[in-house]
Structures are given as C-alpha cells and as structure tokens.
Write a structure and sequence with these properties.
It holds the Pfam family HTH_1. It is built from 13 helices and 11 strands. The protein is α/β, with parallel strands linked by helices.
C-alpha cells in the first residue's frame, strides 16, 4: 500500500515530476513509471496531472496524510536509536531567515560542532512561511524566527528581543524634518534607544520617499505594512527583496528606505550614509525564539543545541 514512499512524497513536495526526479537522482520517465505502478496497485490516482503545478486528488490527499504519519513514526524511531548512541551519530536540520542564520546561529553552530563533531548539521535559509511549512512537515527539526508560530502546534523557546528600526539614506532631504528623531549607533549598541525618553519617528515625514520592502511571506514585511497602516502612510515601494541585508545595503547606496532589525545594525557597524530612526513599538518589537513541533520526539541532539544556545546567550 505504501511502497515507494520517498518517490511519492518527493513529487508531492516539489509539485513536479522533473524536479523530484532530479532530487532523487533518477530519470523522469523512471519516476513517472514508478508512481504509475503505485497508483495501479492502490487502485486510485494520487496525483492530479491536469493542474500546474501538479496537485493531489481527493484520494491523494488522504494518502499523503497517512504517508506523513508513517514518515514521522519512522523518524521518531530513528531519532530514538541515534540518542542511544549518546550523540556519536545523527543529524539536525535547522531553519531560519538569512538574518538569524547570519548573525545568531554561527557561534551556536561552532560551539555545538566542537562538542559533538559527529552530529551532522543541515542549515536551511528561507522565508518565514516556508520555514513553518518545513517544520510542520518534519523536514526541519528546529526553526529560529521572530514570527509567532501557532502555540497549539509548536513548542517555543525564547532566545532574545528584536526591534525593527527605519534606515533612511542620509542624502534624502526629508531627513531635515526628522533631526530630533535620529538614533546614534552608540545608542543602538548599548540599547539606550529603547528608553521611553527616546522619541519614536512619525513615519509620515518620509511618506513621499521610496521604500524597499521584503517580499510577502516575511515577518518584517508583515510588520512594515502594519506600521505603515497605523501611521496612515501609503509607501511607494520601489523594490521587493528576499533578504533584509540586501534591502539595507541598497539603502546605504541611497536607493530607498528599509525596515531593518537592530540585530543587523549591531553587526554591520557604523555607516555614515544612512540615518536610523526608532519606530513605535506595537509592531516593531518582537521576540526571537526557537520552535519545534509538539508531540514529536525531540532528538537529544536538538535538545543539546537549544541548551548550548542558552549558554551562549547568557
């Protein structure tokens, strides 16, 4: 009934026979024939080949649900076996947006690898919506993000605070109307800008200037839109980008205004080509946390990774 699990599930994930075949290192005709054989054995079509990308039939939807339960049981047992080896073997898949994989994970990964050199780490960089999808499917064991994942589905381990700030090219003339709101690099480093005495920027000052937004599906994009709505500003979006660091670098070159994390600002250093401003905290303040799926066997290696992250943070 569930022969060829890997083949069926890869086609489901990729929504494409050609992409799945490439990932599985087999030819597309061979994969198509294998899937067709499975469908003949179960008596129903799993995939709807009339849609693009390929979809699931009604039977296929139930088949995949059952398949995922089998995969999860197998993964849980394999994780249990790896734990019996006392962390002398195994693997962890960790996901995060570029911001966190670049500036938070490196010291944790370094320390973990020193302590457990035989545990293979797989790091995945993608946007928030893809991270949640992969965590739910079991492709990822752990995710670090500042989005509030569904607490009924995921366990959460708080890591740190994160605040969105506004980065504006220094050459923009609108800065002349915002001199009372500029935040110094020193105040960002020591956290002083978070004091209530530091004024928040009225965003309308820059309503006529071009903005650089992240693409939809990213938490920073979601919050930037909320901030604009709250400030009654309809942003002129010049570009939509995948990564916050790309938006920030374009701001440094005078292309437009970007919403950036104070985590990024603390790591990139002083840049005289931009002005930084504090935003109202309702949508700009967020928490960075590690997430893992509830009711799923939590690998000992994953537990150790979280433990090491806490020791480094402290």
């Amino acid at each position: 009934m569930f022969k060829g699990i890997d083949y069926v599930y890869e086609v489901y994930l990729e929504r494409s026979f050609s992409k799945a075949a490439k990932n599985l290192f087999i030819s597309q005709p061979s994969l198509s024939a294998a899937i067709k054989k499975i469908e003949l054995e179960v008596g129903f079509e799993i995939f709807d080949r009339t849609t693009k990308p390929i979809g699931l039939t009604e039977f296929g939807l139930e088949y995949i649900k059952s398949l995922e339960k089998i995969i999860e049981i197998e993964e849980n047992f394999n994780n249990y076996l790896n734990d019996l080896s006392d962390l002398k073997a195994g693997n962890i898949s960790i996901g995060g947006t570029n911001l966190f994989t670049s500036y938070i994970l490196p010291p944790i990964i370094s320390e973990f690898s020193k302590k457990y050199p035989n545990i293979k780490l797989n790091i995945v960089e993608t946007n928030t919506s893809s991270l949640e999808k992969n965590l739910y499917s079991g492709t990822l064991d752990l995710v670090i993000d500042n989005y509030d994942f569904d607490s009924s589905v995921y366990e959460r381990k708080f890591y740190s605070k994160d605040n969105i700030m506004l980065a504006v090219p220094a050459k923009f003339l609108s800065n002349k109307n915002a001199t009372d709101y500029v935040v110094s690099y020193e105040d960002i480093i020591n956290g002083k800008y978070l004091d209530e005495s530091v004024k928040t920027l009225p965003l309308e000052i820059f309503k006529e200037d071009p903005f650089l937004f992240l693409k939809e599906g990213n938490d920073t994009r979601i919050r930037a839109e909320k901030i604009c709505i709250r400030e009654n500003v309809k942003p002129n979006i010049l570009l939509e980008l995948d990564q916050q660091i790309t938006a920030f670098n374009l701001t440094c070159f005078g292309m437009g205004i970007s919403f950036v994390s104070d985590i990024l600002l603390k790591n990139v250093g002083i840049n005289e080509d931009i002005c930084i401003y504090k935003l109202e905290s309702m949508d700009s303040a967020r928490e960075v946390s590690f997430y893992y799926k509830k009711y799923k066997y939590l690998k000992k290696a994953t537990q150790e990774f979280i433990k090491i992250s806490e020791s480094i943070k402290n």
